[in-house]
Write a structure and sequence with these properties.
The complex is a heterodimer of chains A (309) and B (306).
Chain A lengths: L2 H13 L1 H23 L13 H4 L6 H8 L2 H33 L3 H12 L6 H12 L5 H8 L14 H26 L3 H9 L4 H12 L1 H12 L7 H8 L6 H4 L2 H10 L4 H29 L7
Helix pairs in contact in A: 4-16, 5-9, 5-12, 6-9, 7-13, 12-16, 15-16
Chain B lengths: L1 H5 L7 H32 L3 H7 L11 H6 L3 H34 L6 H13 L4 H11 L7 H4 L6 H12 L3 H9 L4 H12 L1 H16 L3 H6 L8 H21 L4 H7 L3 H34 L3
Helix pairs in contact in B: 2-16, 5-9, 5-12, 9-12, 9-16, 10-11, 12-16, 14-15, 14-16
The chains are: A mainly alpha (309), B mainly alpha (306).
Chain lengths: 309, 306
């Protein structure tokens, strides 16, 4: 930089001193809690020991990654994470749009208000409580479902030892928790549709279903695509809160329920393998970063206003 | 609503009737499914242990009993301490977080601040890439030495870029002329922020405040990672611990064969879990009707990017 450039810089520094002062707490916070941990990714390439710490521990190249990939865990957790997210995104999008459309179509205001409020309720509780609810419903001894099964003379199902049921159980609670919150977005999009389009459709003799499929759905397509893309951006992120509270440390279910986030957590807390855990974390961060950049490109192609950066 | 404005004139066709059946049915079913698990917990908490062990959980209370609540409040100090911890964290975290987020968003929304895009990206980048769990864990436990400190519960949730973006989009909506007028009147930046901007973004403060408050109220994760002494447990982690202890206790009982049935019945375990859950969830469910509308506003605005 030229001398005058520096002088200009200091001049601005002075001019903006109050702004910079106001930004300082957040900047310091972000440096400590977000940027500083980024330097910790070197641990992924180290054999971490407590005495050496992040910088003093010996390097071990790609050993952590090798172990992660060779043990077959990488394939398993990546597959689970992606498949669960695809399943969640698909079912959430469909149910949330359906709820939003039905909420706008029904006439009874009280019914609309009450159902919407009830659907919003699960959003407000912690996953710890959802874990308790899941136990109430699926426990083999006291669960509501097994109570119904035995009532009809059936054989009890031991859900907590049978992994094949868990994709459905996890899907149910994922949809359950997000339906009220998620449908609000689509509701807002539908409210924004010009009512004259509906009137025109009506004059043209469209019935109510044609109006939904030929007017409402195409009109909320932009919102839908943006929201879809944004959720695709997080496709390598597992919802730790959900998986941990519903499944916990139940090793019997891992084949169907272990996601990247739960594995990272276990590597850190149960096996105390910091290097390995950091390697899995880095693997995930890189995958996430790449997907977000791609998604952002796609969003930009679709509608510049919604790009993230 | 869309349909209200243009119906009524024509006789209701069969398509409308079908739609109504589907719509009312679907919404009713989903609403019911959302609600029933809450009811199950509530009735479980008012049932007798014996009935639950024999019949399992149900939608209605079985053999009405207050035994579980009596057990919860036999030693109220424990629950109350967890409550105090959570309330304290929620209040301090919400006020502090709001201040931090509003102040930052205010600067980033000022068009006469040339560096605002650079700083925006500085914050935004942290949502694209992160160091992951382990470096963060080491930061909290070894670098900052916050293990078993309340700060380990307070700091991680204090600032979020998502909330910053919501706040920023609200502040951007304030006409520049108002801020300029304040400046001409001789207001400094801090005065402008607190006397001019803050009163105009009350809905945003409510929404973001609720987001932050909910995050603190429902946090158990940071407690699990960083808190060791049970006197410092916040509410949700307290519940988590109790639920798991009860399960462990139950296993222990069933292993000591002979006395198992008798003692399992005499000490509420399943109903105790339910009562604890109710005690922990109660306030949020009660406050919920009051705050729902702010959430709805916030989600819609937050979606339209920062």
């Amino acid at each position: 930089m030229k001398k005058s450039g520096w002088r200009g810089f200091f001049k601005k520094l002075y001019k903006y001193r109050v702004f910079l002062l106001m930004l300082a707490p957040a900047v310091i916070y972000t440096l400590i809690f977000a940027y500083y941990p980024m330097t910790g990714i070197v641990m992924a390439f180290k054999k971490y020991n407590y005495a050496g710490g992040i910088w003093g521990s010996p390097w071990n190249g790609l050993e952590n990654f090798k172990f992660f990939f060779k043990s077959g865990q990488a394939g398993l957790v990546t597959r689970n994470t992606v498949l669960y997210n695809v399943l969640f995104i698909a079912v959430n999008t469909i149910t949330q749009i359906a709820v939003a459309i039905f909420l706008t179509e029904i006439r009874n205001k009280h019914y609309r208000k009450i159902t919407q409020s009830l659907m919003f309720l699960p959003y407000f509780i912690s996953w710890v409580i959802v874990g308790v609810m899941a136990f109430n419903i699926f426990s083999s001894d006291y669960g509501f479902i097994n109570r119904i099964i035995t009532y009809f003379g059936g054989e009890k199902i031991s859900f907590y030892t049978k992994p094949q049921y868990w994709p459905f159980i996890l899907l149910f609670f994922n949809v359950w928790k997000g339906i009220g919150y998620g449908s609000v977005m689509y509701l807002a999009a539908i409210m924004g549709i010009d009512t004259s389009i509906y009137e025109a459709a009506k004059i043209d003799g469209a019935n109510v279903f044609q109006r939904i499929f030929k007017v409402t759905l195409p009109m909320i397509m932009p919102t839908t695509i943006i929201l879809l893309l944004l959720s695709v951006g997080g496709i390598f992120k597992g919802n730790f809160d959900m998986f941990y509270n519903l499944v916990g440390n139940n090793g019997l279910l891992y084949n169907y329920t272990d996601v990247i986030d739960t594995l990272t957590f276990r590597a850190l807390t149960s096996s105390n393998d910091f290097g390995m855990s950091a390697a899995i974390g880095l693997y995930q961060s890189v995958l996430c970063f790449i997907t977000i950049v791609i998604v952002n490109k796609l969003v930009g192609r679709y509608d510049k206003d919604y790009t993230l950066f | 609503m869309a349909s209200e404005k243009h119906s009524n004139k024509i006789k209701t066709g069969s398509d409308v009737i079908w739609l109504n059946i589907i719509a009312y049915g679907f919404l009713g079913l989903i609403a019911l499914m959302c609600f029933v698990p809450f009811i199950m917990i509530l009735s479980g908490s008012f049932s007798s242990e014996q009935a639950i062990i024999q019949n399992g959980f149900s939608i209605f209370p079985q053999d009405f009993s207050l035994e579980a609540y009596k057990t919860v409040f036999k030693d109220p100090a424990v629950v109350l301490r967890a409550y105090a911890t959570t309330i304290g964290l929620t209040v301090i975290g919400t006020v502090g977080g709001l201040l931090l987020q509003t102040m930052t968003a205010y600067v980033l929304s000022r068009k006469d601040f040339e560096w605002r895009n650079k700083f925006s990206f500085f914050f935004y980048f942290t949502t694209l890439f992160s160091g992951g769990l382990v470096p963060y864990f080491i930061l909290i436990t070894q670098k900052l030495n916050l293990r078993d400190s309340y700060l380990a519960l307070l700091l991680p949730l204090l600032f979020s870029v998502y909330n910053l973006l919501i706040m920023k989009s609200y502040i951007m909506a304030i006409p520049d002329s108002l801020i300029e007028a304040a400046k001409i009147d001789g207001c400094g930046e801090f005065r402008t922020l607190f006397k001019v901007v803050m009163p105009m973004i009350k809905p945003a403060l409510a929404t973001v405040g609720l987001f932050i408050a909910l995050a603190y109220w429902n946090d158990w994760y940071n407690a699990m990672l960083y808190i060791k002494s049970d006197t410092k447990y916040p509410l949700q982690y307290f519940l988590y611990q109790q639920v798991n202890n009860i399960e462990a206790y139950k296993k222990l009982l069933s292993n000591s064969a002979a006395s198992s049935v008798a003692s399992a019945v005499s000490l509420p375990t399943q109903t105790l879990k339910m009562a604890l859950t109710i005690v922990v969830t109660g306030p949020i469910v009660l406050a919920y009707p009051l705050v729902q509308k702010y959430f709805v506003q916030g989600i819609t605005i937050g979606a339209v990017k920062g």
